């Protein structure tokens, strides 16, 4: 199955995580990594499974790279029925009132357009010690195994 990893980043962490996930799951099928900044949400299709990796900036805002994608979701209102995705948010719980909100903004916008979120909502907290890629790879492998896209 085609797996498309979409990252939304401001300072590069989400891109690094997306690339590391792609390397780890390369045997699952055709895996691509794309910056959300260059993705038209109207082009998302049910035959592809999407892994979305997105950080939070400002105070609960989208990272710069995710803004055009979010705007296009609101302006074009594409019908994303049948599209399945899983979400991994990067954030920092020191931002007590806006922890991981950027990914949640994208998550809400996708479900409002009819897409279906699948599996565990992954999160990396920069206030903790864990490596975002190690957690992200384990998250992706779990999601893909549960969705029977990747065999554990
Ligand atoms: C200026 C700034 C603002 C941030 N604001 C938030 C925030 O509101 N909520 C949150 O959960 N994390 C916040 N973070 C943490 C980032 O989401 C975290 O460092 C993440 O790993 C960055 O990923 P990126 O490099 O892909 O953008 C902020 C980080 C910076 C530097």
TrEMBL record:
Keyword terms of this UniProt record: Electron transport, Flavoprotein, FMN, Transport
UniProt protein name: Flavodoxin
SUPFAM superfamilies (UniProt xref): Flavoproteins
Function statement: Low-potential electron donor to a number of redox enzymes.
Pfam families, A to Z: Flavodoxin_1 (PF00258)
The Flavodoxin-like domain, residue ranges: 3-144
Family per similarity comment: Belongs to the flavodoxin family.
Cofactor: FMN
């Amino acid at each position: 199955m085609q797996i498309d990893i979409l990252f939304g980043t401001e300072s590069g962490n989400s891109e690094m995580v997306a690339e590391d996930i792609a390397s780890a799951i390369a045997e699952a099928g055709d895996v691509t990594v794309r910056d959300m900044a260059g993705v038209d949400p109207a082009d998302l299709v049910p035959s592809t499974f999407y892994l979305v990796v997105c950080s939070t900036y400002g105070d609960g805002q989208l990272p710069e790279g995710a803004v055009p994608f979010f705007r296009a979701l609101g302006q074009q209102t594409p019908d994303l029925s049948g599209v399945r995705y899983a979400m991994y948010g990067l954030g920092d719980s020191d931002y007590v009132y806006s922890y991981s909100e950027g990914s949640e903004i994208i998550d809400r916008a996708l479900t409002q357009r009819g897409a279906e979120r699948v599996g565990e909502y992954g999160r990396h907290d920069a206030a903790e010690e864990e490596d975002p890629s190690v957690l992200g790879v384990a998250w992706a492998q779990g999601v893909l195994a549960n969705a029977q896209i990747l065999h554990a």
